[in-house]
Write a structure and sequence with these properties.
The chain is mainly alpha-helical and about 210 residues long. The protein contains nine helices and two strands. Strands 1-2 form a two-stranded antiparallel sheet. A hairpin with a 6-residue loop joins strand 1 and strand 2. It is globular, with a radius of gyration of 22 Å.
Length: about 210
């Protein structure tokens, strides 16, 4: 019985998942999460000007406080330590956002910047196996270097972008959106250029 189960698991592990766009969206969120956040943040930079981003954080803070209170009262009958912790955490996060929206916005930008840098660094290391095997390796490398550089700037100087002149705020938003689009594109292309050796949870490059 145990042997048959092991054989069945081995056969399942050898099944190769077709590498199409739908499977990329469904199973490869770790590859496009940061680029998608970059795209949304760039859009916010374009639509909102300067400290308006802090105003948005304040509004979100109020909504989080309301959500925390509603969650607490709606689940009052089934109150448990987990519910209390979740409702309290949401309320406190909202309260902090209302009290100090600039700090929250700054912290958020630092987290995004760090995520951009680490994502670019991991991609550069991973894509090194494509050197000499993909005609677009140089393009991938340049995009990742630029993304990492912008990520460092966002992490080190978040307040500079929040208080920048409207024109610079707009330009930075456009840059973030373009980088987000290029990163989404390269993430999908690199995903397509690898070959699966198991059920699709890992990728190795052609030797």
């Amino acid at each position: 019985m145990g042997k048959n189960l092991m054989i069945e698991k081995k056969e399942q592990a050898e099944i190769q998942r077709e590498k199409n766009f739908m499977n990329f969206v469904k199973f490869e969120s770790k590859r496009y999460a940061i680029p998608f956040i970059m795209l949304l943040l760039g859009l916010l930079f374009i639509l909102l000007q300067g400290n308006v981003l802090s105003v948005l954080v304040t509004v979100l803070g109020v909504l989080l406080m309301i959500a925390g209170v509603v969650m607490g009262f709606s689940l009052l009958s089934a109150m448990s330590p987990l519910v209390i912790f979740a409702a309290s955490s949401i309320f406190i996060l909202g309260l902090v956002s209302v009290i100090n929206p600039t700090w929250v916005a700054t912290f958020f930008l630092k987290v995004v910047g760090l995520g951009m840098f680490l994502n670019a660094l991991i991609r550069i290391i991973t894509e090194h196996s494509l050197k000499g095997k993909s005609q677009k390796y140089t393009f991938y490398f340049i995009i990742d270097v630029i993304t990492g550089g912008v990520g460092i700037l966002l992490f080190l100087f978040p307040m500079s972008w929040l208080t920048a002149a409207s024109f610079l705020f707009y330009v930075f938003g456009v840059i973030l959106m373009l980088l987000g689009v290029f990163n989404l594109y390269t993430a999908y292309k690199v995903y397509k250029e690898g070959r699966y050796v198991n059920d699709g949870t890992d990728v190795v490059w052609e030797e």
